């Protein structure tokens, strides 16, 4: 309870809960409303196959956005995640083609993700260097390092058993979609009901008050980054195993898409507010918009503009909400 | 939030436009003049306006006509399948010619400064000729000119320099040649009167825009019933290409009988999308790609034609061109050159040798390539 009241945004937790719920509800309505609108234009959009493909092809963004949301809630940001996903995919794929047991290839991505992100967390938390600077540096290191080490050579001939994303649970639920839902629910429950999960809100909402309450800010930040690395590893596995080829380059703009999902999902860029349920809904919405643009014959160039509009609208709404609360 | 969405969509829909007149080029094509090839191989192609030789000339090159020569090949980088293949072609040619020694050496990364150092070292140590594939057409020019000034012959392949920095350039494929191979393959595999869509990088990427324009021109001329449905952009992004191809399949349903992949990223991703949709054999995938990325789909009979050029032939041709230059049988103003088993190759664009029709990888030959 301590953490809740310290979260910094208003002192009435019920009110905050209501506001957050409405953000998620809005996104859910947008997801459904858009599906119906496009479906009226072209009923094929609503085919089960298409809806499942939209989720399947973008689940990795939602999974990465779960970690990103935690990072942003803690008052930080990470712009190295796209490059890291590219690196982790390459590490995992390289192990798999060189005959390492598949489980080892999968675990390596998760472990390396945790190590790299925890390392960044330590620098940010203990050396007190702003996250944007640290992660910008890491972005360059990972991006340059990947091209230097691989020479841009693609990984092909991946063993069939490597393809985690091809698994269908009970013969119908694609593994990436299952993982997206599972990760979102577990992370949401943990952030809401556990002391360590709530500490993230406390640190991001009001660091000084959190410290006075005995919450270790540095330790919380390192924990958040380590977890974020775990989710980045999981996202990298989905990303790497969807196709038969791993490009050995950094996916363009991936970090922006992930950050967009978090922010549009209602995670306040100022820290202290937001849920992973929101970011997952937002990731689904963004993916749905990308598909919808093709269905209604609009150039996919517009996806960037639409994402921009979504970010601005959400951020402005967030600021207005904070002002209103500060005034109330 | 909902308002924002609605506004964005309204704006986007209004701006998207509706024009699709028959003579309008497909989305993603450029506006440059097109020069479609003849529909069948037998017909003569309209000869493009002749262009004067614009290559360079070595200063006081020693006369080694018919005598043994030593060449060095400096590709963009060494150790990758593609340049291993060009290197193999050079060794094949050297063996066939009998009076050529060629060695491949170069940077392990595609870096222009490294490449310049390698070339500079070989100028110092002394060779009769340099074969190169440039990492940068402009930055490589000074060192190549230096080689020419020392009497060393210079021939490029795969990636050109500015024309005056080398004598000849072996061009692996012209835009209209690739376009013909792509459209002919699609018409054969999908059907003459079927609908297809294109997955490209962006509408403004120069090479892709050129290919699409030539494909449009060739289809108008030779396969007018093929029906273009739309072009989507996927940058050079694997997963975006896959998602876009999947969306096209879901959107058009039975109307879609073929997908063109315009990049080596889009083609395997499109093949994966067709495979995942369990539509192999129903939707033909034709595209530019490298063999290794396409082997799973070609071996599974999901993709029949992968269009590219044969890098072994490219290296082979470059070596024959160099021999002909040294022997004096290929001079400025020539219209063709003999290239051993490849036969007579034509001179185009002043100082370029055209390798010939693009190479189509199929289930029968794809296993012989590793790049």
Structure notes:
The complex is a heterodimer of chains A (328) and B (371). Chain A is mainly α and 328 residues long. Chain A has one domain: ABC transporter involved in vitamin B12 uptake, BtuC (Orthogonal Bundle). Helix content of chain A is 73%, strand content 1%. Chain A contains 13 helices and 2 strands. Chain A has a two-stranded antiparallel ribbon. In chain A, a hairpin with a 3-residue loop joins β1 and β2. The two termini of chain A are 22 Å apart. In chain B, 52% of the residues are buried. Chain B has 10 helices and 14 strands. Chain B is elongated and about 65 Å long. Chain B is 38% helix and 18% strand. In chain B, α2 packs across α10 and α5 (175-190) crosses α6. Chain B has 371 residues and is an alpha/beta fold. Chain B has 2 domains: 27-45 and 175-308, Rossmann fold; 69-173 and 310-356, Rossmann fold (3-Layer(aba) Sandwich). The longest helix of chain B has 17 residues, at 81-97. At the A-B interface, α2, α3, α12 and α13 of A face α1, β7, α7, α8 and α9 of B.
Mean pLDDT rating of chain A: 89
CATH fold-level label of chain A: ABC transporter involved in vitamin B12 uptake, BtuC
Number of domains of chain B: 2
Structural class of chain A: mainly alpha
- The total of beta strands of chain A comes to 2
What separation lies between the terminal Cα atoms of chain B? 48 Å
| Total helical segments of chain B | 10
Name the helix and strand elements of chain A from N-terminus to C-terminus, one letter apiece.
HHHHHHEEHHHHHHH
Structural class of chain B: alpha/beta
CATH architectural arrangement of the largest domain in chain B: 3-Layer(aba) Sandwich
Q: Within the largest sheet of chain A, what's the order of strands? A: 1-2
Low-confidence stretches of chain A: 1-10
Helix content of chain A: over 70%
Specify which chain pair forms the largest interface: A-B, 54 and 46 residues
